[in-house]
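Problem: given the chain below (197 residues), write out its structure.
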Amino acid sequence: MLFSYRFRAQAITGEYVIFTLGDIPVRITPDAFILAAKPNSLILKLNTIVCGADMLDLFEGDVVRIKDNLYTVRYMRGFSLIRNDRFVLYYNQLNDFTIVKRNSFKKYNVVFKINKDYFTFSDIIGVKDGYLLTANIKTPIDILSVQQDTRTSINKKRLYFGNDYNENVLFMKYGRIVVEVKNGVYDVFKKFTIWER
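Solution.
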């Protein structure tokens, strides 16, 4: 699996915890889950899961200060920071920022795909021998075969990380949905290349 998003949730004790699907988030009540792959996992609130990118500890809905301006992290065909006047910054343009407010309200129900079946965090009910168990899929799931929804489509076809796109594989880098090109990555929606430094 391409762990393209990272996630953050708030514990019932108030702390924020960053995780991936590889940490095996298992629902223990209708509103709470633990990370089965992490010993002594805190109990986390299911309705506080927010998405973050492959880099930086910024998550959807967070507010940051850059110089004298406030920006909100948003996800729309990739992550960006947007100012009140609609000026946009991308993660590869960031040098220095201060987090002003962390968001803890779920924005989107993340969808995972395995073959032709789909599941969400609330469907995960356990783990057995390293395989995920879900309430809606009868067979155990090899976590390395799971794809994450990019929350976007091209020509009415839903895209998942790991899909082929013009003979390349879609993944996330610098918070953008990209494919690899020589000396960098190409943002398939903004149509620009981010050159490796």
